[in-house]
């Protein structure tokens, strides 16, 4: 249903898998793009980020028909 979910602001920990269940496509954290099928393209995120989680307080949901 959703084309992608873009993370706008960062604050509370949200499991990236739960967000993936919402959009089934990709999640952008700042300039890093995550894909649950192929992994993050380009350079890997800093190790300081720890396990694959995203922090979000606002998500921009863009539908394919938008």
Query: Can you tell me the residue ranges where pLDDT is under 50 for at least 5 consecutive residues?
Result: 8-17, 20-25, 27-41, 51-59
DSSP strand (E) fraction? 35-45%
What's the β-strand tally?
Answer: 6
State the separation between the terminal residues, measured CA to CA. Answer: 11 Å
- Please give the domain count: 1
Order of helices and strands: EEHEEEE
Q: From the alpha-carbon coordinates, what is the Rg to the nearest angstrom? A: 11 Å
Shape: globular
Give the overall pLDDT as a whole number.
47
Q: Number of helical segments?
A: 1
Strand order of the largest sheet: 4-3-1-6
By helix and strand content, what is the structural category? mainly beta
Q: What share of residues is helical?
A: 10-25%
What do you see in this structure?
This protein is mostly beta strands and about 70 residues long. It has one domain. About 10% of the residues lie in helices and about 40% in strands. It has a four-stranded mixed β-sheet with strand order 4-3-1-6, with helices on one face. It has a two-stranded antiparallel sheet with strand order 2-5.
Task: Please describe the topology of this protein.
Layout: E1 2-9, E2 13-15, H1 16-23, E3 26-29, E4 32-35, E5 53-55, E6 58-63
Parallel strand pairs: 1-3
Antiparallel strand pairs: 1-6, 2-5, 3-4
């Amino acid at each position: 249903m959703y084309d992608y979910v873009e993370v706008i602001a960062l604050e509370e920990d949200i499991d990236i898998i739960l967000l993936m269940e919402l959009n089934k496509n990709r999640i952008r954290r700042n300039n890093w793009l995550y894909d649950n099928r192929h992994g993050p393209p380009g350079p890997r995120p800093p190790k300081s980020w720890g396990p694959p989680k995203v922090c979000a307080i606002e998500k921009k949901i863009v539908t394919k028909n938008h």
